[in-house]
Amino acid sequence: MRVLVIPDVHLKPYLFYQALELMEKGEADQAVCLMDIPDDWDREYDIGLYVQTYDAAIEFAKRYPDALWAYGNHDLCYLWNERESGYSPGAARTVQEKLLELHRALPEGNEIRYIQKIDNVLFCHGGVLDYFVKSLVSPSEYKNENKAIRKINEFHHDLMWNDMSPIWLRPQYERGKMYKPRKLLQIVGHTPVEKIYREGNVISCDVFSTYRDGRPIGTQEFPVIDTETWEFWGIRCE
């Protein structure tokens, strides 16, 4: 299956407009969003942009109800009252209400999760560290990745708000072993990178984030992942 990945959004509604266009052109069979929908440099008072971005996400969810969504740390800080860098107290209620609206737009059984899985490919915001899984699930769950992922997706703040969790991990800098590197490919955002690239069993794709002055850090293209062959490529709207 060809999966279009919408990486870290950070108040860029055009990502959803462009993703809609690419999906309508048949560039992919399904989409996954790695979220971090709110917050960007010096935009904490631009409540209208928060609304516009969430409305674009909600419209995408309605148009493509099979799209999967994976929480980022910036999304969860509004649900867990954590003052993450970029957190906007003035937008907090708006974000909470719009996240609920996004939840309601998704069909039953399609929940926003920390980790999503298609074939043997994991999609999550930061990455799934082997030590994190081994430390927090039973040995039998560890051996069965579906059970392990299901268990982790039930965790709450106390187990998830740390640097080793799937919402915070930065495998681009941390050299710890990833979960089942020979069996599972991982698609992650969270850490801005200059280009989409693979190292080990991790494909990093946060290529839409910017510097404070608005200059792009990365190539600003959408990754497409073949979940059967593990091939990947980037595409843009023409």
From TrEMBL:
Signal peptide: none annotated. Pfam families: Metallophos. Residues 1-194 form the Calcineurin-like phosphoesterase domain. One of its GO terms (molecular function) is hydrolase activity. This is Metallophosphoesterase. It comes from Candidatus Blautia stercorigallinarum.
